[in-house]
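sry for the spam today, last one i promise. C-alpha cells for design, 63 residues
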C-alpha cells in the first residue's frame, strides 16, 4: 500500500504555522516581567470604586 500525502485544510494549516508575536503581545509580555499584573492589580484595588449605599451601576471588574 502506498501512503498518500493528505492536503492540509485551512484550520490545520493555521495550527501548523508558528504565529508571529505582535508588537502589542511583545509589549505586554515585557511589561509582565517588569511589573507583574497581580501586583499592579492589588495596588489599584485599594482605591477602586465600590458600589455605594444608594446602589447604582456596579463598576467594571478591575481584571
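last one done:
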Amino acid at each position: 500500500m502506498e501512503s498518500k500525502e493528505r492536503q492540509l485544510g485551512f484550520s490545520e494549516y493555521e495550527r501548523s504555522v508558528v504565529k508571529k508575536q505582535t508588537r502589542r503581545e511583545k509589549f505586554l509580555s515585557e511589561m509582565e516581567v517588569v511589573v507583574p499584573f497581580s501586583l499592579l492589580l492589588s495596588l489599584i484595588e485599594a482605591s477602586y470604586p465600590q458600589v455605594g449605599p444608594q446602589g447604582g451601576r456596579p463598576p467594571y471588574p478591575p481584571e
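DSSP finds three helices and no strands in the chain. ok im logging off now
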